[in-house]
Amino acid sequence: MRCSPARSTPERSGRLGWRAEWVRDLICADEYGWRVGLVNGGQGTAVIESVDYRVARPGADTGEWTDFAGVLAQLSAAGLEFGTDYGLELFGAGSPLIGRVDEGTVRAGEFSKRFVTEVDALQLRLRVVDTVGDTHERIVDCLKGARLTRPDVDRTA
User: Fold this and answer.
1) DSSP assignment, residue 76?
2) Sign of the CA dihedral with 35 first, then 90, 54, and 38 last
3) How many other CB atoms are found less than 10 A from the CB of residue 20?
4) CA gap 64, 33 in Å, rounded
5) How confident is the model at residue 15, as a pLDDT?
6) How wide is the angle at C-alpha 156 spanned by C-alphas 150 and 157, nearest 5°?
7) pLDDT on residue 42
8) Cβ-count burial of 66 within 10 angstroms (0-12 exposed, 13-18 middle, 19+ buried)?
9) What is the side-by-side order of every strand in the sheet holding 121-129?
10) CA distances from 99 to 43, 51, 142, 152 (A)
11) How far apart are CA 42 and CA 156, in angstroms?
12) What pLDDT is recorded for position 154?
């Protein structure tokens, strides 16, 4: 929490977070997929200023930040198909970031087990402006925790 010189009360609207879980039948029938949602934990609606992406493949450095079309091209070049191996939400500047009533999140994307296996990291850099005009940035590693919690991995051994 921080105080702005122009405000005497602490500013709380910049709490950006994320939530993820494995969900059955998310991308393919009878398969689990990794669903990632963004959370605006602030007091008001945040407005999206920009969204960028970068990808890290096994054995390679993390790539440069790119836009939605750029990340789709990179993933396609790696043999991963939009709608089959993954899905990403297209965010436009000026869109509100509000949580859904049923989940409390805004869909960021979903990823197949193949995607989680073949991509080390997919990062989403989100910049928003809150109701008092402050800008906040959050980098979300969309695959963080996915390998640790895969439902088809035996952890008893």
Assistant:
1) H
2) negative
3) 22
4) 26
5) 76
6) 110
7) 73
8) middle
9) 96-97, 46-56, 121-129, 135-141
10) 12, 17, 17, 30
11) 40
12) 60
Tens digit of each residue's pLDDT (9 = 90 or more) over 131-140: 889 999 999 9
The contacts of residue 3 (CB under 8 Å, 6+ apart) are: 9, 10, 11
> Which residue is it, tokens 């493949």?
57
Q: What is the distance between the terminal CA atoms of the chain, rounded to a whole angstrom? A: 43
48 within 8 A of 55, measured Cβ to Cβ: no
Q: 15-37 pLDDT, tens per residue? A: 788 999 999 998 888 899 999 99
Pair of tokens at residue 31: 């398969």
Where the chain has pLDDT below 70, the residues are 1-14, 99-103, 153-157
- pTM for the complete prediction? 0.82
Question: In whole angstroms, what is the distance from residue 134 CA to residue 35 CA?
Answer: 29
Distance CA 106, CA 99 (A): 5
